């Protein structure tokens, strides 16, 4: 946000006026607690009394804040609209596959809440038990939806891997503890029921992207802590997860709250999502894993692979670097994979839409099929994915992306 320019020359009336009253700490706190969209005063409210005396400066500042917030969100919305239009050829093809393919089982119920649904992407080859990826989609904890994983589901199912895209309550329907609870129930369903869909319950992998990577990491760590406790009732086990793939995730909310505020996810909203200041620590896997009281839970964690683009402006790649360091410090198995010059959406959207062999997909498939010579041989001769969006449109989308 650009700061306002202060004029050097002021009218005589303002030049002669007394200096502004210093702002107390209480007043600063009041400013911090202002609502996301400050109230816009009408002309009658802005003028106090019959003498035409103006209302307090806070009212005018609030009006300017509304104008600035409105401008920021209008530009972001326009950028998002243009971004979506440029990628629309790919979205339409993936959407057609999502709604009409017999290989997609939509909205399988896994719990009692309205959003407790998941989508299953099944390979055409039904011979033998297939490895499974349980995927938690992103969406800034506000607009997440299971269909956002359709492209990943399509690509991996074409390589003989079942994908279960888990939906969860978004804010304000739920807060972070609700999201983690939903994700845990979805993972439990996959662990206990995937065999009936042709999946191998002994080869289940957990993955998440962006906010979904954060939710999935919280869920995995919470489960490990539960299993270290006494008499905890659990419906699935960390030992059932072969590995965790974190794509462009954030794992320390205390460090990211100011970054998100500057990107438009305002502090007051984010604190509501994370259930207050204490929630920022409680739901920060990077902080939790280093807590001396729960460090022993790290020994239960599966292999963790973190992927991040170095040109990610939505969640800086340092988020994955620092989490990897924290995991290493407590003896967990972790691998950090950085993609030079990739943005927040490159490795998850633009690269798969480009077709051919993309780095992230190759890494995940090779990891899942490691030690499986037959599946690796089949995958080696599989035809590359076809392009869904022309290159010039992908390049333009990358330049105007609001993410």
From TrEMBL:
Location of the protein in the cell: Endoplasmic reticulum membrane; Golgi apparatus membrane
Coiled-coil ranges (or none): none
GO cellular component, one term: Golgi membrane
Pfam assignment, any one: BD-FAE
Domain BD-FAE-like: 118-327
Gene3D superfamilies, sorted: alpha/beta hydrolase (3.40.50.1820)
UniProt-listed Enzyme Commission number(s): 3.1.1.n2
Transmembrane segments: 77-99
Protein family: Belongs to the AB hydrolase superfamily. Isoprenylcysteine methylesterase family.
UniProt source species: Asparagus officinalis
Reactions mediated catalytically: [protein]-C-terminal S-[(2E,6E)-farnesyl]-L-cysteine methyl ester + H2O = [protein]-C-terminal S-[(2E,6E)-farnesyl]-L-cysteine + methanol + H(+)
Topological relation to the membrane, as annotated: Multi-pass membrane protein
Taxonomy of the source species: Eukaryota, Viridiplantae, Streptophyta, Embryophyta, Tracheophyta
Protein name: protein-S-isoprenylcysteine alpha-carbonyl methylesterase
Main location per the UniProt record: endoplasmic reticulum
EC class of the enzyme, as a word: hydrolase
GO MF annotation list: hydrolase activity
Origin: domain of life: Eukaryota
Function text: Catalyzes the demethylation of isoprenylcysteine methylesters.
Keywords of this entry: Endoplasmic reticulum, Golgi apparatus, Hydrolase, Membrane, Transmembrane, Transmembrane helix
Residue numbers spanned by region Disordered: 1-37
Classification via InterPro entries: AB_hydrolase_fold, BD-FAE-like_dom, Carboxylesterase_B_AS, GDXG_lipolytic_enzyme
